[in-house]
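in:
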């Protein structure tokens, strides 16, 4: 499992208001990968999303 996604979930027990047990970890990992690729060279419209993603990653 990708540590970038597991730690916030384990620390809080909730992500997006959902209990950890109900989250599809494979989908969260896929989302993290896609955001990582998008944010390497983000279009103007994605800058806010990329900033949030970067803060989440740094918080680990």
């Amino acid at each position: 499992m990708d540590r970038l996604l597991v730690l916030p979930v384990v620390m809080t027990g909730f992500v997006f208001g959902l209990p950890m047990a109900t989250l599809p970890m494979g989908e969260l990992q896929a989302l993290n990968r896609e955001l990582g690729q998008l944010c390497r060279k983000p279009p103007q419209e994605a800058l806010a999303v990329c900033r949030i993603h970067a803060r989440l990653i740094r918080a680990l």
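note: DSSP finds three helices and two strands in the chain.
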